[in-house]
Task: inverse folding
């Protein structure tokens, strides 16, 4: 009887030995593959759970993306893992949220009566917040409240926070002010 060299190509679900050739998978899916010398050595395995299958599949896809990226990109322009290049980091100061400057979308529900808009705009002016655009439509029939929608020019977060606190404390304002930060892409 002659000795045959085992064929290392069959794979099955299970644990791959840590000393297997080519075990450089960064620990992502080594636990889900086992090298078998013959199909009969693999034994019976149960089907993986859907969660295990999808996590293994996503790890394999991530590895394929990494390999493709490394193969096709210019070595100087490759995006490293975690998508940042430590040697290109700068010492820019990180602003506190109070010092962030941006525009805002504001929506508030108010009683439909004279002077409400004047009160709200006075609060904004006191905080040095300029209005870029505003819409107030007529209330529906039988309603005594209306929505006011405003867009502001650039302002500091701490200024808008102070203004919103004061606006929400007005007896004519119902509920909380809805605020969305606005960013214009492509402007420096």
Result:
């Amino acid at each position: 009887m002659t000795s045959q060299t085992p064929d290392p190509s069959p794979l099955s679900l299970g644990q791959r030995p840590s000393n297997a050739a080519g075990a450089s998978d960064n620990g992502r899916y080594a636990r889900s593959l086992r090298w078998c010398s013959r199909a009969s050595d693999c034994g019976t395995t149960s089907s993986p759970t859907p969660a295990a299958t999808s996590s293994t599949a996503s790890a394999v896809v991530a590895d394929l993306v990494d390999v493709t990226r490394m193969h096709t990109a210019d070595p100087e322009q490759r995006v490293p893992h975690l998508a940042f290049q430590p040697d290109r980091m700068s010492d820019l100061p990180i602003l506190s949220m109070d010092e962030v400057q941006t525009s805002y979308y504001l929506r508030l529900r108010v009683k439909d009566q004279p002077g409400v808009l004047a009160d709200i705009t006075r609060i904004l002016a006191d905080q040095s917040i300029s209005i870029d655009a505003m819409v107030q439509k007529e209330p529906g029939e039988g309603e005594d409240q209306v929505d006011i929608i405003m867009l502001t020019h650039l302002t500091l977060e701490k200024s808008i926070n102070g203004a919103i606190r004061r606006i929400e404390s007005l007896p004519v304002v119902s509920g909380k002010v809805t605020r969305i930060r606005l960013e214009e892409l492509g402007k420096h």
